[in-house]
Amino acid sequence: MHTLPKLNYALDALEPYFDRETMAIHYGKHHQTYVDKLNAALVAYPDLAEKPVDDLLRDLAAVPEAIQKAVRNFGGGHANHRFFWSILRPAPAVTGENLPAGNLTTAIDQTFGDFEAFKQTFTTVATGLFGSGWCWLVSDPTDSALKIITTPNQDSPLTLGLVPLLALDLWEHAYYLKYQNRRPEFVEAAWSLYDWEKINSLLK
Ligand code: MN
Question: What is the model's pTM?
């Protein structure tokens, strides 16, 4: 059985950028629902139910057609949210820019010029995404390049053979209570919450 992962921080720890009420509903209701629906889809497939959700998504074509859509949507929803929570951390008490470190800085500079250029490109792509989906910074194992991509709905970069490094949930449920239609403000707020040490550790 898949379960809702524990958060490494309290629901109000991401205030004022992500508010407690949104986190409570987003994590406690939306994410839980993806987990529940994934488990329900896998009930008749005990062998698949034992596999890590990331493995199912990496080889989605091997999942039986009868539950492929459910695994894509609910398995993707579970994996995407689990990843998203894991790369966030409470904003530092000291104000100052939250910047990446280590190998990631070098890779971002080489790919995008500098962090500011990366941030601007990511922001443009994220604010421009039509409909519900996610914006990602991924590493592409085929050419070792960093890329900014979007995925619709709950599609996972894992299914595309990509390694996610940074994610932003752009479903309205991620921001509507606090930001309403002001998606750019939500995108801007997220930059204060990324755990660059964690993200750097994902870059192999
Ligand atoms: Mn979400």
Answer: 0.96
What's the 5 CA to ligand 1 centre distance in angstroms? 14
CA of 197 to the centre of ligand 1 (A): 23
Interval 129-155: pLDDT, tens: 999 999 999 999 999 999 999 999 999
Distance 28 CA to ligand 1 centre (A): 11
Give the angle subtended at the CA of 25 by the CAs of 19 and 27, to the nearest 5°.
Answer: 90
Distance CA 40, CA 168 (A): 27
CA of 51 to the centre of ligand 1 (A): 23
**C-alpha 107 to ligand 1 mean position (Å):** 28
- Distance (angstroms) between ligand 1 centre and the Cα of 62 equals 26
CA distance 50 to 103: 34
Q: Closest by alpha carbon to 69, among 81, 57, 87?
A: 57
Please give the domain boundaries of the chain with CATH numbers for all domains. 20-86 (1.10.287.990), 102-203 (3.55.40.20)
Task: Count CB neighbours of 85 within 10 A.
Answer: 22
> Across residues 86-97, what is the average pLDDT?
82
SS3 at position 150: strand
Separation between Cα atoms, residue 122 and residue 165, nearest integer Å = 13
- How far apart CA 153 and CA 137 sit, in angstroms, is 17
